[in-house]
Amino acid sequence: MRAAIQHQTGQDKLEVVDGIEAVGFGPGKVRIRIRATGLCHSDLSAMSGVLPQPAPFVPGHEGAGEVLEVGDGVAGLSAGDRVLMCWLPACGTCPSCKRGQTHLCLAGFMNAGTPNFRRPGADPSEVFGFAGTGTFAEEVVVAANCAVPIPDDVPYEIAALIGCGVTTGLGAALNTARVAPGSSVAVIGCGGVGISAVQGARVCGATSIVAVDPVETRREAALRFGATEAVAPEALADAVQRITAGEGFDYVFEVVGKSATARTAYEATRRGGTLCVVGAGAMDDHFQVNMFELFFDEKRILPSLYGGGDVLRSYERAVALWRAGRIDLAGLITHRVRLTEINEALEQMRTGVALRTCVEM
Predict the structure, then answer these.
(1) Is the pTM of this model over 0.90?
(2) pLDDT digits (tens, 9 = 90+) for 77-109
């Protein structure tokens, strides 16, 4: 089969190769034919080394496809089922799962240390899958709880987006921050996840939603998805003055993953307001607040991992909102490519041209 491989951390291009084998099939596993996968900024972060990931590896974690075969002991899945990929499946038995915080289960992260692929030849080499998945491949073998059935009316490309970016952005607004009706919101970083946070704030009933991004096309897109205003980063301070009389927004979402933008977001949040950190950043990038402002301003700082809630319930909610016309998911897909054009798609993401690029297999 064909897959796109990152040979060494730090390389900015992938090699699309034939003859890759998906490995590990057996009891408790499923083999999936990937039909569509989205490009998420986390893939770029893994390629650059911002997010830890053993190499060589196949990037991609936002995918959907068809079950080809199921291993012994797998219940609830059959060959031919349409599924989306859950890169952070819950084990159901760890302390986090028992507390109802299934999105904090670490079992899924353990999958990242087991190779998903093999490059055969005279000297066979093991290849990992990003986040234990690796959807930039025509097939992948994963644990059965990574494969979540999807309704027949949900297209593969829509299901793929729900598998990560949409769930992350919507959940940040609905689960983590719990945006109140009538409130003011700012979203810093308006790619696919940020736009989903904009839509989540709109669903919650926020009356003022300011999208902040340096790329003009993304600002224009944010207005189509529910932002009431869109500004460049250098105009955020003016927006704070005009819209909140200098007090700051009730909720500010940081969807970049940088300490500098997190600090900007903190300063744009009103006293007693909520800063929601959604972007995935580097381990050596430290966000700082002084102890007096932390005490005196009483701003809530809430990180949001994968939407901050039960992901299976979040998937169902995203589908329900999409069916009802409350959120636009098809509009997030601004570009479509084949796997052989993956490097072009990566550049579209780096430059901010694309909200989401769909790789159709």
Answers:
(1) yes
(2) 999 999 999 999 999 999 999 999 999 998 877
| Percentage of residues of the chain with pLDDT beyond 70 | 99
Cβ-proximal residues to 207 (8 Å cutoff; 6+ apart), any chain: 181, 182, 183, 184, 228
d(CA 336, CA 319): 22
Q: Which residue has the tokens 């939407």?
A: 307
Question: What is the pairing mode between strands 249-254 and 269-277?
Answer: parallel
Three-state DSSP state, 228:
coil
Q: Which residues of 345-360 are buried (b: 16+ CB within 10 A; e: fewer)?
A: bbebbeeeebbbbbbe
Q: Which residues contact 160 (CB under 8 A, 6 or more apart)?
A: 36, 37, 38, 62, 63, 64, 84, 85, 135, 358
If phi > 0 it is left, if psi is from -120 to 50 it is alpha, else beta; for residue 93 that is alpha
- Which positions ≥6 away from 180 have C-beta within 8 Å? 204, 205, 206, 250
Other Cβ atoms closer than 10 A to 247: 15
Q: Which two tokens stand for residue 154?
A: 């949900």
Residues 6+ apart with CB under 8 A from 158: 322, 329, 330
- At 167 the pLDDT is 97
